[in-house]
Amino acid sequence: TPVTSETPSSETPVTSETPVTSETPSTSETPSSSETPVVETSVSLDISALPLGSAFANNTAVEGxxxxxxxxxxxxxxxxxxxxxxxQYTHRIKSGGTTGSANxxxxxxxxxxxxxxxxxxxxxxxxxxxxxxxxxxxxxSTELGRVEATETGAxxxxxxxQAGDYYIGTVESMYIYExxxxxxxxxxxxxx
Length: 192
Fold this sequence. Notes:
Strands 1, 2, 3, 6, 7, 9, 12 and 14 form an eight-stranded antiparallel beta sheet that branches. The protein is built from no helices and 14 strands. The chain starts with 25 loop residues before the first strand and ends in a 9-residue tail after the last strand. It has strands at residues 26-27, 39-44, 55-56, 60-61, 67-70, 75-84, 87-94, 108-113, 117-125, 132-138, 143-149, 154-160, 164-170, 174-183. The chain is globular and about 50 Å long.
């Protein structure tokens, strides 16, 4: 019989603050003298800079970033230290339930990708001993991939073929520890 506690253990919150995003351009290949270099950019949603404890309304833009939180008053940011895949995190977003696949404007994190690339999701189940998923959808509600995890967490990079709006949603309560978008502006690559 699975343990059904959904309440995380209480810990002293970590209060370190960092900038809202980090962008790291890098040249992904060495161009020949006649080619323009391909510049790949990474942007992370800095969960530690979000207001803690308050429920996010829909269409809450994270200023100066490509991220928008469509919380439907069910998503909240909270301080919680956890190590997932050898990386220590100090904050997370609690998803608070199911995303309506017909309406990506509710209970999702929207990423406005400027080009083809990958979206990394690090998440953990909101229920002990249960595998749950955080899903990546395109603007047509087509699932592109998912990260499935127990309460110990997991990480996955999911490819996106072109610029556009993409949405991270959940079927049940999940904790989202990291969202990082890596892209090449203007690139369309159906095989990315």
